[in-house]
Amino acid sequence: MENVVVCADGLARCAWGGIETDEQYQRYHDQEWGVGATSDRELFERLSLEAFQSGLSWLTILRKREAFRDAFSNFEPEAVAHFDKADYERLMADAKIVRNRLKINATINNARALLALPEGVTLASLIHCHTPLTLRPADAPVPGSTPESAALAKDLKKNGFSFVGPTTAYAMMQAIGVVNDHQRHCWVRTRTSTASSGPSRPTSAATA
Question: What are the residue ranges in the chain where pLDDT is below 50?
Answer without folding.
Answer: 193-208
